[in-house]
């Protein structure tokens, strides 16, 4: 295996840096560790604020930004093939060197400062100070918390560093010349942490605390309409004619999937009781007049279920719900449609969210997000492929395909238009989870290449009252969406 020198801070290294060393060692690389020149650590105000917030949010495990004991030095006699500078201040060398930049800064103190100010940091992996080898746009799930936001960003620093090292070693990235898309996101990191935290972070945290005293943390509502001809996918706009699936307020419906069977329409949803905080899958049948019947539970497990993608294949009806809390993706077969579902096979192990099926080029494909151990579940796209539904499913060599809060997480089944173009609804987390939805066109997909366009946003104008949407699906004439509502406790 190729040899890699990893440069870490001597004093006060951080957990995210230690995890990168550990993961590259576990991958079999010949790793040596050296200490970089001393640089200023995180100010005491940063450490104190993050510790306090983690206690408030009952996070007992150490954060990725927490200090760890000195990472021991290890040496080798010969020169390395690659250097990974996690200290941010390694001296220049003839050995190719990757440095992480946080909004253009080589030092990770830029992360808490940016998050406190309300910014969404970008991370770049830069080769020899000039060539951007990879970029990450991490999702920040809890915008009200600086500590949890720092966790989300540093989690993707780990993902980016490990994936770029692997891509360079496998010669999937060039070793020279600046890439034309090199850019850095500019934030207010020069203002310093304390002013940003006092002026922005604390008021943001206080406002969210007050909101949660009066309102549900999240309450989704599902919309449906029957349309002839072009709909949301063709117009990229919600338009009019939507009805809201009623709920009693003590639970919500989300992640709607429409399914037509024997000239009847069915709507499968995540059904989340606020009291249990664990969702089941329910079905809503429509009568001949298009009126929805009462939802009824059709699948419950000891863990949370959502995103109930239902489809027909090989003479059977299947469901592929999200169950990331179980650590596996399980395929279910319908035993008595629509009420009885039997586990058929575990397709993938890991914290996989919103796996979405596609048949293309003589193979089956699953697009999903992976938590990669830490951070958000909404910003890291992974793809798997197989020859048959039950597998075995193989990870794509480009995984993670991208780290991008704007388009990594699927938001509904793939769509084929009249020209046989393929589109994937994708969630846009720029404004937070459930902040919007777009359509990305799949330009190229095979066992070596994946290309998606930047998403075209779906315009929320129309009579749907909840513009923050994150799922869209259609089956024949039935279109379904969801949106987040402000519901008092």
UniProtKB/TrEMBL annotation:
Gene3D superfamilies: Glycosyl hydrolase domain, family 43. Keywords: Carbohydrate metabolism, Polysaccharide degradation, Xylan degradation. It holds the Pfam family GINT1_N. Residues 250-439 form the Glucosamine inositolphosphorylceramide transferase 1 N-terminal domain. This is Glucosamine inositolphosphorylceramide transferase 1 N-terminal domain-containing protein. GO terms for biological process: xylan catabolic process.
């Amino acid at each position: 295996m190729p040899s890699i020198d990893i440069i870490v801070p001597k004093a006060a290294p951080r957990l995210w840096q230690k995890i990168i060393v550990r993961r590259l060692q576990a991958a079999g690389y010949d790793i040596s560790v050296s200490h970089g020149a001393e640089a200023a650590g995180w100010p005491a105000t940063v450490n104190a604020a993050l510790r306090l917030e983690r206690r408030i949010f009952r996070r007992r495990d150490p954060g990725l930004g927490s200090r760890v004991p000195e990472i021991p030095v290890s040496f080798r006699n010969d020169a390395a093939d690659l250097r990974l500078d996690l200290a941010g201040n390694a001296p220049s060398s003839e050995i190719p060197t990757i440095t992480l930049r946080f909004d253009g800064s080589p030092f990770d103190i830029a992360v808490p400062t940016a998050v406190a100010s309300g910014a969404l940091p970008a991370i770049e992996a830069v080769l020899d100070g000039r060539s951007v080898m990879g970029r990450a746009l991490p999702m920040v799930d809890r915008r009200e918390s600086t500590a949890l936001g720092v966790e989300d960003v540093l989690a993707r620093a780990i993902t980016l560093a490990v994936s770029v090292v692997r891509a360079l070693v496998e010669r999937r990235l060039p070793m020279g010349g600046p890439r034309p898309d090199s850019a850095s996101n500019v934030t207010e990191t020069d203002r310093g942490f304390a002013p940003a935290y006092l002026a922005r972070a604390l008021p943001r945290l206080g406002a969210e605390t007050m909101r949660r005293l009066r309102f549900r943390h999240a309450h989704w509502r599902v919309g449906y309409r029957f349309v002839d001809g072009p709909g949301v996918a063709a117009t990229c706009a919600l338009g009019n004619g939507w009805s809201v699936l009623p709920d009693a307020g003590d639970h919500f419906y989300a992640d709607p999937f429409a399914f037509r069977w024997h000239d009847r329409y069915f709507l499968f949803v995540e059904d989340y009781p606020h009291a249990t905080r664990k969702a089941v899958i329910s079905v809503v049948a429509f009568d001949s007049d298009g009126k929805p019947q009462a939802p009824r539970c059709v699948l419950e497990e000891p863990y949370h279920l959502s995103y109930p993608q239902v489809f027909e294949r090989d003479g059977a009806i299947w469901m592929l719900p999200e169950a990331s809390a179980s650590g596996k993706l399980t395929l279910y077969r319908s035993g008595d449609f629509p009420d009885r579902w039997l586990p058929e096979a575990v397709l993938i192990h890991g914290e996989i969210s919103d796996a979405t099926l596609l048949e293309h080029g003589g193979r089956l494909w699953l697009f999903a997000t992976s938590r990669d151990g830490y951070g958000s579940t909404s910003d890291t796209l992974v793809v798997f492929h197989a020859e048959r539904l039950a597998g075995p499913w193989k990870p794509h060599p480009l995984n993670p395909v991208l780290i991008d809060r704007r388009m990594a997480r699927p938001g509904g089944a793939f769509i084929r238009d009249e020209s046989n173009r393929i589109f994937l609804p994708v969630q846009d987390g720029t404004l937070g989870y459930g902040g919007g939805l777009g359509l990305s066109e799949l330009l190229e997909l095979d066992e070596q290449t994946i290309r998606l366009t930047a998403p075209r946003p779906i315009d929320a104008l129309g009579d749907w009252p909840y513009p923050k949407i994150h799922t869209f699906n259609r089956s024949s004439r039935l279109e379904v969406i969801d949106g987040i509502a402000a519901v008092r406790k």
